[in-house]
Amino acid sequence: MRASFGRAAVLAFAFGASLTLAACGGEPAEEATLEEDSVAETDALANEAGPLEDPSQPLPVTLEPVNESGVEGRATRIQVHDSLQLSLMVQGLPRDGEYAAHIHKGTCVSGGAVVVPLNPVKAEGDGMGRSLTTIAASRLPADEPHFVQVHGASGVLACGDVQGR
Against a cut of 0.70, is the pTM above it? Predict the structure, then answer.
C-alpha cells in the first residue's frame, strides 16, 4: 500500500510541477514578444533618423550616370577595425572588360585628385560589373569630402559623393 501511495504522490507532484512550469512558460513568451516589438520600433526610429554615426555600419554611396552614360550603381563602404572594405556594383556598362574605379578627394561637382585607386570593376555580358577593395581606414580621413568614380575609355561613366563618416 505504501508503494501505491508513493507512486500517486510522485504523479501528483509531477502533474503539479508541469502545471507550474506551463504557467511560468507563458510569461517569457509574452516578454520576448514585447522585446521583439521594442527592437522593431527602435530599428524603425533609427531608420527615420538617418544613418547611424557608427563607423562599423555600412555606408552606401549612390553612383549616378555621368554625361548620359547610362551607367549607375552603388558603392558600399564597411569599416572593420582599422580597414575599409569598398564594394562596387554597377549596371549599364557598355561592354565586357575592366573599368577603372577610384576614390577622389572633393565632390563629383568640384572634382579632385585620386586618393585611392580601387580594384577594377569587372564587367560581364549583361552590363553588370563588380569590384571589391580593402584598404587601411587611415587612407580616407572622415573629416574630408570624397567621391567615387567609375571610368571607361570615353571618360567618367558614373560618380557618387560619399556622405557622412
Answer: no
